[in-house]
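Subject — a protein and its fold
Encoding — discrete vocabulary of local shapes:
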Amino acid sequence: MLTVLPIRYVANVEACRKFYAGLGLVVDSDASLDVWVQLSAGAGAVGLHDFTVSKGRPAGSTELGFATDEKLEVVGSRLREQGYDYEIVDEDFGRSLRVVDPDGVTVQIQEIDMDVAKASASALSGSSRDE
């Protein structure tokens, strides 16, 4: 099953967490770290990602994303049957499938592994975020 999960790259994760919680979204503490907060709504979720560890995405940008409990290869197979090429990438949180929609916008489908994410967060805490 896919969950709509747009990713908002932010300069201050804690300030944005408070803002979106004020809108009524609920923090999923089991799926959140210092550099990533996942907030759920009745019909979806939003992820807040510290832009300084986002591999080049600027603060204020938003990416259309989905989280899935399916294997990315299964999702990719459906996309390929429809004529869309995709790429599966190892990420700091697990893996993601990236595909370009008909308008040229990259869409990310995430296979989140909190053990991988927590290990990455530990590694990040030992390095400078200004890199």
The beta strands are 2-4, 7-10, 26-27, 36-41, 44-50, 62-63, 65-68, 86-91, 94-100, 106-112.
